[in-house]
Amino acid sequence: MDLSLIIPVYNEQDNLPLLFEAVYKTMNSLPQSWEAILVDDGSRDNSLSLLREYAQKDPGRVRVISFRRNFGQTAAIAAGLDYALGGTIILLDADLQNDPADIPMLLDKLNEGYDLVSGWRKSRKDNVLTRNFPSMVANWLISRVTGVHLHDYGCTLKAYRRDVLEGFRLYGEMHRFIPVYASSVGAKITEMPVNHHPRRFGKAKYGLERTAKVVLDLFTVKFLVSYSSKPIYLFGGAGGMLMIISTIMMIYLFVRRFVSLIGVTGSPLFQVSVMLFILGFQSMLMGLIAELLVRTYHESQRKPTYTVRTMINLEQDPRD
Question: What pTM, to 2 d.p., does this model score?
Answer without folding.
Answer: 0.75
